[in-house]
Known about the structure:
- By secondary structure, the protein is an alpha/beta fold.
- Helices cover 22% and strands 25% of the residues.
- The chain has a single domain, classed as Aldolase class I (TIM Barrel).
- The model has no long low-confidence stretch (mean pLDDT 95).
- Bound molecules: iron/sulfur cluster.
- Residues 37, 39-41, 44, 46, 49, 79-81, 106, 123 line the site of iron/sulfur cluster.
Amino acid sequence: xxxxEIKTYPIVETFxxxxxxxxxxxxxxxxxxxxxxxxxxxxxxxxxxxNQSLHPHISxxxxxxxxxxxxxxxxxxxxxxxxxxxxxxxxxxxxxLGKKIHLETSGAHPFSxxxxxxxxxxxxxxxxxESIYNFVNELKIxxxxxxDLEWAISQSQKIPKDAVKCLQPEWNTPHSKDLIFxxxxxxxxxxxxxxxxxxxxxx
Length: 203
Ligand code: SF4
């Protein structure tokens, strides 16, 4: 008899909430937050996720069970930086639930997994791996400085033409809202993304 491979991932948390940001804002979603990130954004609000060794390993089987129990419309794989892991074992099992699977990633590692929607949020602190660009459905750039707008423009030139393009103010940088507002008024191909879960004071 061939032993069945038991694949596990370091998990920071799983939770049922709404998608707070981007194109799918307001959508009922079950989140799987994977541990591990080596991008090290200074303003990161998930720093506890960086060291994957601090988080318990949970099997794919258990993760599928938890996901199935939640009455969510979509499943969101996030982090940390989820692509630090091979996501094929996880997504191939989640697919069997028949729900749409979304990925939130900086693209800093080679692309893996089967997704229905890829939200790509590249960071200057560790530029993306080239394998991500063809898979992008939504580009979401966090804006803290005018230089971040230049980064947004350069990244938007590498993604599919029909991808949604969002600029999102860095939560603790007040002037970032003005930067984005003015830029979107002059550049209608971009739209604003706000972290609505923070306004609603939910996860
Ligand atoms: S890529 Fe995401 S998890 Fe990693 S440091 Fe940046 S904001 Fe934090």
